[in-house]
Design brief:
It is globular, with a radius of gyration of 14 Å. It is 36% helix and 23% strand. A hairpin with a 2-residue loop joins strand 2 and strand 3. It is built from 4 helices and 6 strands, in the order αβββββααβα. It has one domain: Aspartate Aminotransferase, domain 1, CATH 3.90.1150. With 126 residues, the protein is an alpha+beta fold. A 4-stranded antiparallel beta sheet has the order 1-4-5-6. The chain has a two-stranded antiparallel sheet with strand order 2-3.
């Protein structure tokens, strides 16, 4: 099980990757252990008008860093773009449990975020 300092390092590296997407997205929560990105745009989603749409988030848990990826909740076919290494960390419908982060996995998460931005833009949510 990763130590707290390892989890903080994983969180900080993933947060740095996610911060690249702060334009066009913006955080609602930006703390030392929790961070998320949202699109603040009036859109219709699931038959309702919304003023914001959740995109992705991070949270330090006791034994992993949770990476939440909303595009996957909307369209499960996005899984086809995931590498086997990233896919094996998926522990729910949209939650990845990141316990170790090497360069390859960081690049795969970055690629998933880029694909998610494209996915949201196609729907007019960004």
């Amino acid at each position: 099980m990763p130590q707290q300092n390892e989890l903080v390092a994983i969180y900080n590296r993933l947060k740095q990757i996610m911060q690249k997407y702060e334009n066009p997205l913006q955080p609602k929560i930006d703390m030392e252990s929790k961070y998320d990105l949202w699109s603040f745009k009036n859109v219709e989603f699931a038959g309702k008008m919304r003023t914001e749409v959740y995109f992705a988030g991070l949270i330090i848990q006791s034994s992993y860093v949770g990476f939440y990826y909303m595009p996957l909740y909307i369209d499960e076919s996005l899984k086809r773009f995931f590498s086997p290494e990233l896919f094996k960390t998926l522990k729910g419908k949209t939650c990845f449990h990141i316990k170790h982060l090497d360069d390859a996995l960081a690049e795969q998460i970055d690629a998933a975020l880029a694909k998610g931005i494209e996915f949201y833009k196609e729907r007019g949510w960004i």
